[in-house]
Amino acid sequence: MKKIAFFLITALLIGFSGYLYAQENANSKEEPVYSVLGTFYNWKSAWEGKDLDQYISFYHPAQRFSGLSINKFKERKKYIFKKAGKIALSISDLCVKKKRDKIITEFTQYYHVKNRLDVGKKKLTWVKQRNKWKIISEQFTAMKSKQNIKSSSIGVKTLEKDKKEILVLKMNEADFKKLKVRQSVETTFKFIIDFPQSYKFGPQVPSIIHLKSSLIEGAITYKYENCYLKRGVIFLAPNKSYKITASYDSGFAVFLIQG
User: What is d(CA 148, CA 225) in angstroms, rounded to the nearest whole number?
Assistant: First the structure.
């Protein structure tokens, strides 16, 4: 493993602003969770990139946020974006819940601007409007902790000559043997890792991980089924067929992706 060069992805998660292709077949039982994850990812990217119009487009126009109409809410955010300077937004401990026709995303948010770091628990409630997920409620509870997310033990290495990529994930061998890895049955652009209960995401592991490369577009780790089960979704470039194999080497799960 020491011979494999890979890059650790830091917690500031700055850069990648592209959109994930996370739409699923509407008949799939897992469709709501997967489709809202792609929208959630893009909501964060728009916020961090200060793309005001795109950011506001994720909020339901008929709802009020912070006691404001959508137009007043947009004006307030425009002022904040202008004043803030560079925004670094990190997210950890993401949990996704389905409640009737709604999806609820709960997570720890680390908002870093200039010399200030705000940490707290955030809850977003989403509903479908014209086949798109929209936020109808946003709640934030500040936390006293000022501890930032550290680097996550995940990285990617591209082997251009062989048209392959290596994704590495730090874990012990016992947890690796319990992993369940599968490719999405509806599409060819993601693969899913179901983690054993013994594997710890931990509050220091980012839930949104930018792994931009020729084959990989990004990754999300989250909890579901009342935050009991753990899953990772690796988003791959669309319109390709993939072969994925997993092995274990010196404290790392190694996923070989061939496109």
Answer: 27
User: Is the C-alpha dihedral spanning 14, 206, 146, 42 positive or negative?
Assistant: positive
List, in sequence order, every residue forming a beta bridge with 223; answer none if it has no partner: 95, 230
SS (H, E, C) 22-57: CCCCCCCCCHHHHHHHHHHHHHHHHHHCCCHHHHHC
pLDDT at 241: 73
CA–CA gap between residue 123 and residue 94 (Å, rounded): 10
Query: Exposed, middle or buried, 138 (CB in 10 Å: 0-12/13-18/19+)?
Result: middle
For residue 257, the tally of other CB atoms under 10 A from its CB is 22
- What whole-number distance in Å separates Cα of residue 254 and Cα of residue 243? 14
Does residue 170 contact residue 252 with C-beta atoms inside 8 Å? yes
Distance from C-alpha of 205 to C-alpha of 223, rounded to nearest angstrom: 13
Q: What is the sign, positive or negative, of the torsion defined by CA atoms of 170, 173, 179, 182?
A: positive
* Of the candidates 93, 140, 86, the residue with the CA atom closest to the CA atom of residue 118: 140
- Cα end-to-end span (Å), the chain: 22
Domains of the chain: 31-142 (3.10.450.50), 154-258 (2.60.40)
SS3 call for 79: helix
Contact residues for 161 (Cβ-Cβ < 8 A; gap 6+)? none
Q: What is the pLDDT of residue 210?
A: 61
C-alpha 99/C-alpha 94 separation (Å) is 16
pLDDT tens readout for residues 154-209: 555 555 445 677 777 778 899 889 988 887 755 556 788 888 888 876 554 567 66
Q: Tell me what pLDDT residue 9 has.
A: 27
